[in-house]
Amino acid sequence: MLKRIAYAAAMAAGLASSAQAGDADGLARLEVLDGGMTERGTYLGALRLKLADGWKTYWRAPGDAGIPPQFDWSRSRNVGGVAITWPAPEVFDQSGMRSIGYSDELVLPVEITPARPGQPVALRGRMEFGVCKDVCVPADLDFDHALDAGAGRNPAIAAALAQRPYSAREGGVREAKCRLRPTRDGMQVEAHIAMPSAGGEEVAVIEPGNPSLWASETKTVRQGGTLVATSEFVNEAGGAFALDRGDIRITVLGAKHAVDIRGCTPG
Signal peptide: which range, if any (predicted)? Predict the structure, then answer.
């Protein structure tokens, strides 16, 4: 955590210098894409964030050197629920620290369930995110778009959906077991995942499924047919906490593909 605090201080210094260089909005442009209606009666759309040359933005679990994106859908009209599909991200080395995200462009598919079926739906809200190059800049952009129920297939949305991580079954995961051990500050999670290689140097990310918990950078080692991933969870508010293995989410990022594993068993 000290490493992350030091990086945040460096980022703030970078932000101070970049603010004098121009408007941060010039680094990214946000638009809503239409994908029409699904057979389930939901709307398919996407947020497309186009970045300035050489800049990158972050995944939902960005690592110690990243800024996680956040979304405010509260001003939307006739929206009962929003489900996000994250395309498999890239792994970056940033000032000696690992970050996870996207370069050049992020197309983030969203499936919207209307609160009142058959009635028009509009997405209106704000996306808060970070962009980085030589410095890191927190930014926020508004969106306001009435979804087109008659829109046809959108190639950009289709491509982003095709880039989603494999499910555990698709990735050949035979089992995923998590060993929990108390530490001075929180809880260590050691995951043993029986699965074929995802290609190249694999990087696993372990998410606790609880927004109040901070997860350290995951250490990943392959031992034959088993991938061993270790992380520590800490309650940012301090104090003890309960951990449900069913809420743990493990993503394995490889050169060939990524694999999304939901939950793990004792062992």
Answer: 1-21
